[in-house]
Amino acid sequence: MNLNEQCLLRYLKYPDELSYSTEILKINNKILEHKFITKNILANISVTDYTEMAGV
Fold first, then answer.
1. In this structure, are residues 3 and 21 in contact, taking their beta carbons and an 8 Å threshold?
2. Long-range contacts of 28-33 (CB under 8 A, 24+ apart)
3. 34 CB-side CA count, 13 A
């Protein structure tokens, strides 16, 4: 069961804790976004800079 399913199940069991489940999902999305940026964007910038410097 993934985090989204766990949060939905928790909400169905405890509807008063919707804000708690929402915050968990926000934090999880922020972590995933950070990992994506680090893996895909920052890694490509480093390779580009190195390639440009090698040509000098």
1. no
2. 28/3
3. 6
